[in-house]
């Protein structure tokens, strides 16, 4: 396996091919087709199939959302612990002022720039996008899906 391309602000977002190009579109198409059939021929069997297709569509998206929320919680924990080690003791109480989005964005900051960027994020109420734009030394996260 070749080396990974260095991660930057421009290329850090990525697709999960199985979800984005297979599960999501096929579950949506299946639901639309089943719904179309149930509308064209209103029969209990076709209505039940449309309901089953809707159930499948919702399940696919909920599975994705739940997995992302778990990742967000882990990232929040990791970054809180990291800030606890890197911030001066006088600033550690301010960690709780960071929003979930800010903590998630700060994971890309190198250890050297994290303390000052975190304090700036608190004081200026920086949005996640602005935090990412402010990072000079990008710390890659290849595990996020």
Write structural notes for this entry.
- By secondary structure, the protein is an all-alpha fold.
- The protein has two domains: 15-74; 87-139, no CATH class.
- Helix content is 63%, strand content 0%.
- The chain contains five helices and no strands.
- The protein has helices at residues 17-40, 44-86, 100-106, 114-124, 128-134.
- Helix 1 (17-40) packs antiparallel against helix 2 (44-86), helix 2 (44-86) crosses helix 3 (100-106) and helix 3 (100-106) runs parallel beside helix 5 (128-134).
- The longest helix has 43 residues, at 44-86.
Provide the succession of SSEs. HHHHH
Distance between the termini: 19 Å
Q: What is the average per-residue confidence, as pLDDT, rounded to a whole number?
A: 93
Helix content: 55-70%
Shape label: elongated
Low-confidence stretches: none
How are the SSEs ordered, and which strands pair?
Layout: H1 17-40, H2 44-86, H3 100-106, H4 114-124, H5 128-134
Features:
mainly alpha, 145 residues, 5 helices
Structure, briefly:
The chain is mainly α. The protein is 63% helix and 0% strand.
């Amino acid at each position: 396996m070749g080396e990974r391309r260095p991660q930057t602000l421009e290329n850090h977002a990525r697709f999960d091919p199985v979800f984005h190009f297979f599960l999501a579109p096929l579950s949506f198409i299946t639901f639309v087709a089943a719904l179309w059939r149930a509308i064209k021929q209103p029969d209990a069997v076709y209505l039940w199939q449309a309901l089953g297709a809707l159930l499948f569509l919702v399940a696919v998206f909920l599975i994705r959302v739940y997995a992302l929320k778990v990742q967000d919680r882990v990232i929040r924990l990791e970054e809180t612990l990291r800030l606890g080690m890197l911030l001066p003791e006088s600033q550690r109480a301010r960690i709780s002022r960071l929003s979930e989005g800010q903590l998630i964005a700060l994971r890309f900051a190198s250890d050297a720039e994290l303390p000052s960027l975190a304090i700036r994020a608190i004081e200026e109420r920086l949005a996640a996008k602005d935090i990412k734009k402010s990072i000079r030394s990008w710390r890659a996260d290849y595990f996020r899906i």
